[in-house]
């Protein structure tokens, strides 16, 4: 394996949603000691770093994405000593801790906001975005918040409106203020000094917003601030930075992560995810899976960042549904489709991310009543949709397919009470299929989903063609099969996946013909591609050849 590449280009990341990973004290909420108790599972999987969703002090209005103290830990998750122990224990297993950086907004309970609303002359007043009411007391504009309701919120104590682009509980920080930026950079360095391996930056594309012209995504100040952040916190450190953006395009991505930009290492982009959303109703109105559109985005991004940056590879996270339920078949072909989806993503060029439970093929949960949901977004949007006349069954279908609670149910560790997640009452329901789908059961299977993930993680570590190889799309217009090649120093890797539950006749183009070592397969070993073939339902395989 080439040694002069950044460590994160040869690693696989694993995202933990702390509230649902492992509870250590029986209160029904996952915590940091619980994570520590499961580190050996992650080490056995072979991951290189752990992306930890927020564990900071928070009122938990948005499950920790509303932070009240960036330098403390929420009591339900543990203490700073627990966090230091997690960093140390993970490092002993070769795993770095990448924390979530949530600095587009804070909690309305943060001391900055408390000071800001209490005193118009306080320095913290300008840490947030305030506007006077209109002539009749109306908000500055009719801008809507992402989680429902107006984005401008009246504060009686301050006598002004403040911007909460996501919710009233999450007032936007004013990045135009250099003192605010200095506070954030100091906090980042404080965490780096504690030994973390990097940051995943939540909705970072919003920090450069132009409020007056209501330009929020990728605003005019974004890259100026990211370059300043690099100078103040990242320069000279061997750390990983991933910026989340729901607006980034193939054209703008290099501005974030090209080597000469001195900004970030990679971005999380969601164009492949959004390609499966309804054009009008977004994710809330399910539509049939379109493989050609899906591949156009996945493969197009491979080409766009081939020489100008680095890709993040994922299908699931805390904001998205379970991938085997969304893109695969969580019934008869759950195991095969889970493996096919993993093969498709992990063998492309970039850094793969595994979301907790994905490695055992966990599925979406089926909820029936609004009181079963916990997600701020789902609950807020239901109230809006109900006012528009949307019926419950229609909304429920979208929430059960694409709602964020799907990936926030507890990890299924074994077939015992509450799936081994807690000895108490879990904060959200455990998926009822845990007796069949759990880590203990997967560990006993030599050809299960977990074993397949282990192979994929190991291949990236040991094979240059997987970690660094050039990507070449093949049969891009095929509506049932995904296929591509990787090339590196005379090596070739061919990847083929039938993305349907039907038997498919596939006539591969000559460019895909190959004979060599069968690295992995979900149905039967394959060592060559030399002409038309019949692919079994959800069959996937990879063949490696030298010379």
Automatic annotation (TrEMBL):
BP-aspect Gene Ontology terms: oligosaccharide catabolic process
Keywords per UniProt: Glycosidase, Hydrolase
EC number(s) per entry: 3.2.1.10
InterPro entries for this protein: GH (IPR017853), GH13_cat_dom (IPR006047), Glyco_hydro_b (IPR013780), O16G_dom_2 (IPR045857)
Gene3D superfamilies for the chain: Glycosidases, Golgi alpha-mannosidase II, Oligo-1,6-glucosidase, Domain 2
Domain Glycosyl hydrolase family 13 catalytic, residue spans: 15-408
Span of the signal peptide: none
Enzyme class: hydrolase
UniProt superkingdom: Bacteria
Molecular functions per Gene Ontology: alpha-amylase activity; oligo-1,6-glucosidase activity
Family: Belongs to the glycosyl hydrolase 13 family.
Name of the protein in question: Oligo-1,6-glucosidase
Gene source species: Palleronia abyssalis
């Amino acid at each position: 394996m080439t040694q002069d590449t950044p460590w994160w280009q040869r690693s696989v990341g694993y995202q933990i949603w702390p509230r649902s990973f492992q509870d250590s004290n029986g209160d029904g909420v996952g915590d940091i000691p619980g994570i520590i108790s499961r580190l050996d599972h992650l080490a056995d999987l072979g991951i290189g770093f752990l992306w930890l969703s927020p564990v900071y002090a928070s009122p938990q209005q948005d499950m920790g994405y509303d932070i009240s103290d960036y330098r403390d830990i929420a009591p339900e998750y543990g203490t700073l000593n627990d966090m230091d122990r997690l960093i140390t224990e993970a490092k002993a297993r070769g795993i770095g801790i990448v924390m979530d950086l949530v600095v587009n907004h804070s909690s309305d309970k943060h001391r900055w906001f408390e000071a800001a609303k209490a005193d118009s002359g306080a320095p913290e007043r300008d840490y947030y975005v305030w506007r006077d009411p209109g002539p009749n007391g109306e908000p500055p504009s009719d801008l809507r918040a992402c989680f429902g309701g107006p984005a401008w919120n009246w504060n009686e104590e301050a006598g002004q409106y403040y911007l909460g682009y996501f919710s009233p509980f999450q007032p936007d920080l004013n990045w135009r203020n250099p003192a605010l930026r200095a506070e954030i950079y100091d906090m980042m360095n404080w965490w780096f000094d504690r030994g973390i391996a990097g940051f995943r930056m939540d909705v970072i594309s919003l920090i450069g917003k132009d409020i007056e012209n209501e330009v929020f995504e990728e605003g005019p100040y974004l890259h100026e601030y990211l370059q300043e952040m690099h100078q103040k916190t990242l320069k000279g450190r061997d750390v990983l930075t991933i910026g989340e953006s729901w607006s980034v395009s193939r054209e703008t991505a290099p501005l974030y992560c090209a080597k000469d930009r001195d900004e970030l290492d990679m971005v999380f982009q969601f164009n492949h995810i959004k390609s499966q959303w309804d054009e009008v109703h977004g994710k809330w109105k399910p539509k049939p899976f379109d493989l050609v559109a899906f591949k156009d985005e996945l493969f197009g991004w491979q080409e766009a960042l081939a020489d100008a940056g680095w890709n993040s590879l994922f299908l699931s996270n805390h904001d998205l549904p379970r991938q085997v339920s969304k893109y695969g078949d969580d019934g008869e072909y759950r195991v095969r489709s889970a493996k096919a989806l993993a093969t498709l993503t992990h063998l492309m060029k970039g850094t793969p991310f595994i979301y907790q439970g994905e490695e055992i093929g966990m599925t979406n949960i089926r909820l029936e009543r609004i009181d079963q949901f916990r997600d701020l977004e789902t609950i807020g949007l239901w109230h809006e949709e109900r006012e528009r006349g949307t019926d419950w069954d229609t909304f429920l279908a979208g929430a059960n397919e694409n709602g964020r609670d799907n990936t926030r149910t507890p990890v299924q560790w074994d077939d015992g009470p509450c799936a081994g997640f807690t000895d108490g009452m879990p904060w959200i329901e455990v998926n009822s299929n845990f007796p069949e789908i759990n880590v203990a059961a997967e560990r006993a299977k030599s050809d299960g989903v977990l074993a397949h993930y282990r192979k994929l993680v190991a291949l990236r570590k040991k094979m240059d063609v997987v970690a660094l190889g050039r990507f070449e799309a093949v049969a891009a217009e095929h509506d049932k099969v995904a296929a591509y090649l990787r090339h590196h120093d005379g090596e070739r890797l061919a990847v083929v996946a039938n993305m349907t539950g039907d038997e498919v006749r596939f006539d591969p183009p000559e460019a895909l013909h190959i004979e060599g070592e069968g690295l992995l397969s979900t149905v039967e070993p394959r060592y060559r591609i030399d002409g038309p073939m019949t692919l079994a339902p959800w069959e996937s395989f990879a063949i490696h050849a030298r010379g």
